[in-house]
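Appendix B. One record, verbatim.
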Amino acid sequence: MKKVYYLKTCNTCVRILKELNLSSDFILQDIKSEEITVNQLEEMKALAGSYEALFSKRAKLYKEMDLKNQGLTERDYKHYILEHYTFLSRPVIIADDAIFIGNSKKVVEAAKAFINS
């Protein structure tokens, strides 16, 4: 499977997509207009190893809800990601059995190298 979960209103996501220059066999899913399903999240978790790896602790709601001080469990991470798209660290790039999560330079470079290999 080749898929990217992203926000089309996020300049960083759009810049990364341009930078990756993805082929047409990648499916792009704007997570704001097309919510993530339980099955999709479980597929991502299987590749990532945990829901926490997919969770964005930089989300505005994370700070507003004071989640940092609540000792979240894997179940909580799953719940919040499904509840609101902003909790998914993005973009999430899936290429076959590899997953690349987030927008750090290191992750983007690794995704680019993998996709272009």
